[in-house]
Amino acid sequence: MELVFLINIIEAGLRTGTPLLFATLGELITERAGVLNLGVEGMMLVGALAGFAVASSTGNPWIGVLVAMLAGGAISLLHAFVSITLRGDQVVSGLALTFVGTGLTSVLGAPYVQIRDVPRLSVVPLPFLENIPLIGSSILYPLFGEQNIIFFIGLLLVPAVWFWIERTRPGLQLRAIGEKPAAADAVGVNVGALRYFYVFVGGVFAGLAGASLSLAVTPLWIDEMTAGQGWIAVGLVIFAGWNPWRALMGAYIFGALRRMPLDLQAVAWLPFASNPILGVWLNMIPYLFTILALIFSSREAIRKRLGAPAALGIPYVRGERGA
Amino acid sequence: MRLKIEPRLETPRWLPFVSIVLALILALLIGAIPLAYGGLDPFVAYRQMFRTGFFEPYSFSDTLVKATPLILAGLGVTIAFRMRLWNIGAEGQLFLGAWATTGVALFWLPPTTPKVVMLAAMTLAGFAAGALWGAIPGVLKAKLGVNEIISSLMLTYVAFEFNNYFVYGPWAAGGFGLTAPFPRTAWFPRLTDFGDAVPAFRGMTAHLGILYGVVAAVILFIIFKYSKWGYELKVIGDNPDAARYAGMNLSRTIIMTMIISGGLAGLAGMSEVAGVVHRLQENFSPGYGFTAIIVAWLARLNPLAVIVVGYLFGGLLVGGDAIQPAGIPLLIQGIILFCVISADTFTRYRLRIVQPVASTATN
């Protein structure tokens, strides 16, 4: 009985954590390039609506995903322009991007609120998992046997992102413009153009995160359907210490936490089961846990001298001190 | 030939003002595109918004009503942003302030309490609850180095749930997500209450809260300009290392700033329930605490300018209520913010067109 309960929570974590994983990976890449983009929430909403609208009008969810990624990338260029070309304040620009994304999707999304039968991204059935002895039918199949295809895309993206950042030549340039842009500039790297590119990549990931919400996890469109997940993703990047593997772990933990209020309300011996009003306290869990995770990770960061990319949030101006 | 951005050696005094006006005009022009795409005639929508917000008989009073929480919360954001402390959780602090105010008005003081005592207690409670909610990210930042952007925003979501618990649970009246109405002793005086003496005030709902806002703005202006604390805020914001070497107590100043910042946002919530809603309910704020961020930035973190910008945005909200869909004011606010940050660049830098020189690389 307890095992089933635990498996259910972990399975929900893998499923609902996947959009968070995409958003976190995207922000991680952008921040490693030295740009702080607090507009994740807005970009996710743009992706969620674009994906939903295109999928429901074309009938093909994959076209929806593609357009969502492009839309997320396109809207992120606003932030790139203000923070890279105009050297504006990145915190305020990111906030503005969230406002724009939220307002824009509310204005353009009105006709889609009523639609319920959007074509969804499909589940990948893995029936053979059930035949594995001992853990097959009790653990492996319930966890992975009926996951949506986005779950597997997420699993593949983590090593891909890690490899790109840590093991390739473009990845070296990516880290360089985030840590020491002046040095990168000195050896001929075009800091501004590369930062544009990685802000765009972050937007593409956030768009994918939004589409995976509106086309797989909760297949519908409502205003502000991300409910703060974009902000949690920004927190998760800190929690992950800018490392894709830890982002994977963090996203799944938070996916489980976001689902836990529902699961706990069904537990008969907890007071929440008999009194639904008490359940609102459970809804606080993911947000409180984000704060706890930040407390934990900032202490660890001090101890291990891990930290943010050195040039994070600082516009690069050739010849200026501190660049 | 290409554009080059280079720092200005000095900024003409008129430039910031002109740049903001141009930014606002540009924002409205850009905002017209999604409006048209959404099926509205932008010209008609804007005219409707401006007329409702500023040029109808009750516009002044209605706009003051919406400006009141924007000014109070905007001042809270201003003081934090002055020292580059990114308190973006004003909305949550506002909710906590409204919650404590409601506790005083409905449960913790008898309805027969004299009005002055009642309103004073509500004011203190609203400020204190907002201050407490603001102090949490302040302490976390000062003592543990926790990023205040995330923590203050996460606490906003927690505040929403906290509020929901009370309006659906122990404080619910009828189970519709709202409490019973406040007793009249807990209502802020409104212009319309003086309608017998001044007939022109009849039907005007502007309330005492706007005076709170104006007084708070003047006090903050004086503090920023003349006090040691105001000076410390600026130094810490500009250069924390220099401030530390100069012997300033960074963590104490961070916590104090967040307490006052949260307290002002709490007052915004207090004045909203005492002056407008007269009860606590689930969604009594259309995001005043978030709009306050834009108000503060647009006012260039100047408390007196917060009054003017707060009034303008109050009008935008009043006008926005007159047109559908509901997301339009938020969208325009976001575009305004982008245009203002962009305009800031042109007050700090200037654009020059330069002829290419063979040896220089591109930036």
Task: Using brief descriptors, characterize the structure shown.
heterodimer, A: 323 residues, mainly alpha, 14 helices, 71% helix, globular, B: 363 residues, ABC transporter involved in vitamin B12 uptake, BtuC, 2 domains, two-stranded antiparallel sheet, 13 helices, 2 strands, 67% helix, disordered C terminus
Biggest β-sheet of chain B, characterized? 2 strands, antiparallel
Strand content of chain B: under 5%
CATH hierarchy, class of the largest domain in chain B = Mainly Alpha
Whole-number radius of gyration of chain B? 22 Å
Through-space gap between termini of chain A = 58 Å
Find the CATH topology of the largest domain in chain B: ABC transporter involved in vitamin B12 uptake, BtuC
Distance between the termini of chain B: 14 Å
| Strand percent estimate of chain A | under 5%
Unreliable residue stretches of chain B: 359-363
What's the architecture of the largest domain in chain B in CATH terms?
Orthogonal Bundle
Major interchain interface with per-chain residue totals: A-B, 56 and 51 residues
Strand order of the largest sheet of chain B: 1-2
Overall outline of chain A: globular
Low-confidence stretches of chain A: none
How would you state the average pLDDT of chain B, rounded?
A: 89
Radius of gyration of chain A: 20 Å
Overall geometric form of chain B: globular
Write a compact overview of the structure shown.
The complex is a heterodimer of chains A (323) and B (363). With 323 residues, chain A is mainly α. Chain A has helices at residues 2-32, 40-58, 61-85, 90-109, 136-144, 149-167, 169-179, 181-186, 191-217, 229-239, 244-265, 271-274, 279-283, 285-304.
